[in-house]
Each structure stands twice: as structure tokens, then as C-alpha cells.
Design goal:
Layout (H helix, E strand, L loop, with lengths): L5 E5 L4 H13 L3 E5 L7 H7 L7 E4 L2 E4 L1 H12 L11 H22 L2 H10 L2 H17 L7 H18 L13 H16 L9 H13 L5 E2 L2 H9 L19 E6 L7 E8 L3 E8 L3 E8 L3 E5 L1
Parallel strand pairs: 1-2, 2-5, 4-9
Antiparallel strand pairs: 1-3, 3-4, 6-7, 6-10, 7-8, 8-9
């Protein structure tokens, strides 16, 4: 059987999806695109990922990868570009990624929100779906354990962030050297929300950041093959999960039914049997009538596992 093609489940206005679209383009990795709704219900992800609500999600045959950190690790391994994996980056870069993927991202959400962005959402969906989307995100925000800053605070924080990026780019094309690493893609997707989606003239006073942003944006323009949801499900049902890695710990929950959920936001749990625990991930086996057995991969950082 030929190796499975990398499949990404995403929607056009998703910043974290843009992070992976750009990374896949830079990695020159062929991939298939399955478009999903901006909010649940998403039947294809309910079958493959047990209703896990964050997007993007990636698939390789009967293995499903949740969270961009794990998806990036798979891209790094497939493309031979190790610096795309968070765990292969230096401690300095990892600290930058943690801050950028959470605090800076929330800052950009607040700085970019407004009527123009809502109109784009209406045009890409409908007025009714836009209202449902807003209600969904408000409800998710109420359950979140992280809070967005005020608009005024967001603008000041974003200016400081851009000043820091400008200083990093003096004498080099990317934030940490001559080639992009995971940190570049973390910084890019947050700014993409403000610059591309909200169309704010954010980079006018930052020529170094503007040139870097254009380089990063060019990666996401790579060709991609559309794939139907039904074919993605068929690909999973026709495959077997790849061999499990050796367990790093003697976890008492191995072989038991567990619930697994993010600790920050979108904290809807996924249920299954914990079949492996390594230094960087948990792997949960699920049974679904449409696809049979699938293995869901979750990063250990930012997620919690509990006995069911």
C-alpha cells in the first residue's frame, strides 16, 4: 500500500490553519485539503477525532493529529526540516513560541476584530452562520481559562511585539537566523489575522517585519489538492494505525478508557483508550462505525488526561 498523503482539515479564516498552510508550503510537502465549518458540527471530524473542536487537524491514514505542535512535528519528520518541530528548537525559541501562540495571538485577535472582519465572515458563510459563529466563540470564551486583553492594552502590546520582531530581523531574513523555524510560523499566523484578514495597516512603520511577512506569506500560496470528507473517511477506514512507539512511562492509565482535553480553551473532551505515552504525546485509540480503529495523537503540553 502506498504511503498515506498528508491531509489537513481546516477553514480559510482560521489563523492556526494558516500557520500550517504556510509551513506545508515551506516544507514543499504535498498535501490534501478538507474544508470544514468554522464551528461544530463537523461530521468528518466527529468520526475521525471524536469531536475535538480545535482546527486544524491532520490525518495520515488511520492516524489523526490534534494541535499544531504535533502536526508540525509530523511535517518536520516528513520533510526533513527538523526546526519546524517545537521540540527541536532551542529553549529561547520554545519560550518565544509559547508566548506568541497564546498571549500574542490573543492580542492580535483583539487588535484585528471589527466590522470589516465580520463582513468577511458573512461573505464566506452567511449572516445566520456568522451569528452562530459569534455565539459559539462567546460561549467558548466563557469556558476558557485564558482571557483576552482589552483593545487598548492589545494595541500597546502589539506595538511592543512588532518592535521586538523588527530588532530580531536586523541582518537576517528570519527571526532566528537564515532559515525559518517554528517560531517564524507562530509569529506569522498571529499577524496574518490582523494584516490579511482584518486588513489593518499594521506593518507600515516596520520595514523589516513587512519584508519578512511577505516571505512567510509566499509559502502559503503553494498548490494543494482538494479532498472530499467522504474520501478522507474512506482513507482512514482502509488503513491501519501505524505501529505504536515505545511507552516512555509506566502510566497506570495505559489500556484504560480516558478523557483527553485542552487545558486552555475549546476544552471539549475526547474519549478513547490510552494506548501510548511518550515524551511528547499521548495516543488514544477510538472506534467509529464509519472508519473503524483510529489513533488520535495529542501533545502532552497543554492537554490533560483523566480516567473516565
Amino acid at each position: 500500500m502506498p504511503p498515506a498523503t498528508f491531509t489537513l482539515f481546516h477553514y480559510p479564516l482560521s489563523p492556526f490553519s494558516e500557520k500550517m498552510r504556510a509551513m506545508l508550503g515551506y516544507a514543499e510537502l504535498p498535501w490534501q485539503s478538507v474544508a470544514v465549518r468554522e464551528m461544530p458540527p463537523r461530521p468528518v471530524l466527529a468520526a475521525l477525532a471524536g469531536g475535538y473542536r480545535k482546527v486544524p487537524v491532520a490525518q495520515l491514514g488511520a492516524d489523526v493529529f490534534c494541535d499544531t505542535h504535533l502536526i508540525a512535528s509530523e511535517v518536520a519528520a516528513l520533510s526533513g526540516k527538523p526546526l519546524l518541530a517545537v521540540e527541536q528548537c532551542s529553549p529561547e525559541v520554545q519560550a518565544f513560541i509559547r508566548d506568541t501562540d497564546m498571549a500574542v495571538f490573543l492580542t492580535c485577535l483583539m487588535a484585528g476584530s471589527g466590522g470589516g472582519l465580520l463582513m468577511k465572515l458573512v461573505k464566506s458563510t452567511s449572516v445566520l452562520d456568522t451569528l452562530k459563529f459569534l455565539a459559539d466563540r462567546i460561549a467558548m470564551g466563557r469556558k476558557a481559562r485564558v482571557k483576552a486583553p482589552s483593545p487598548r492594552s492589545a494595541r500597546a502590546s502589539l506595538t511592543k511585539h512588532l518592535q521586538g520582531l523588527e530588532a530580531r530581523l536586523v541582518g537576517q531574513p528570519f527571526l532566528f537566523g537564515t532559515e525559518p523555524c517554528h517560531g517564524d510560523f507562530s509569529a506569522y499566523h498571529s499577524l496574518w489575522f490582523v494584516v490579511d484578514l482584518a486588513e489593518k495597516p499594521l506593518l507600515v512603520d516596520f520595514p523589516g517585519v513587512r519584508a519578512w511577512y511577505q516571505r512567510m506569506h509566499s509559502f502559503s500560496q503553494a498548490d494543494v489538492t482538494p479532498l472530499s470528507a467522504s474520501q478522507a473517511l474512506a482513507n482512514a477506514s482502509e488503513a491501519q494505525p501505524r505501529p505504536l512507539p515505545a511507552n516512555a512511562n509506566d502510566n497506570l492509565l495505559l489500556g484504560q478508557e480516558v478523557s483527553l482535553a485542552p487545558v486552555d480553551y475549546g476544552r471539549d473532551p475526547v474519549y478513547g483508550v490510552l494506548v501510548a505515552e511518550t515524551a511528547d504525546r499521548w495516543i488514544v485509540a477510538r472506534q467509529d462505525a464509519q472508519v473503524g480503529t483510529v489513533h488520535l495523537h495529542f501533545p502532552r503540553h497543554g492537554f490533560r488526561v483523566r480516567a473516565r
